[in-house]
Amino acid sequence: MAAEDPSVPVLEKLGVVLTDRGSKYAVSGAQVASREDVDAVLAALKTERAYAKATHNTWAAMLPSGGLKADDGESGAGMVILRMMEREGLKDHIIIVTRWYGGKKLGGDRFRRVQDAVRTYLERQTG
Predict the structure, then answer these.
(1) Which of 19, 58, 88, 90 has the fewest other C-beta atoms within 10 Å?
(2) Rg (the chain; Cα; Å)
(3) Cα torsion at 77, 79, 18, 88 (round to 10°)?
């Protein structure tokens, strides 16, 4: 078995944490200190086929240089994650919410599902 690359931050995947009208949501995260760390974590996540083929891998990161986010087609979701991280005071971290589309549009509920997934991750970090 190959040793883990110490230069890649350790990714914590909680797996599927909720479903809504056929869509499945998973949440993952890691400690990061730079944009290079963010890219390494995203690449590590996508080595798993299910995550690589997901409809959306929306993420936000709080770095020493400030916040970064990406919606990956789920317009506005990155900002939802970033704001929750800011309110929680979580620094040097990335949170990724993955969605596998279930065939039905969720409208504004998609933001609530992103919030639910992030909340699950944050609770795991603090409790």
Answers:
(1) 19
(2) 14
(3) 180
Any bridge partners for residue 20, and if so which?
23
**Residue 90 and residue 68 in contact, taking contact as beta carbons nearer than 8 Å:** no
Report d(CA 13, CA 30) in Å as an integer. Answer: 9
Q: Is the pLDDT of residue 2 over 80?
A: no
The verdict on pTM exceeding 0.90 is yes
Helix, strand, or coil here: 69? strand
What's the CA gap between 42 and 59, in Å, rounded?
9
The Cα–Cα gap between 26 and 33 comes to 23
Q: Tokens 């087609």, residue?
A: 73
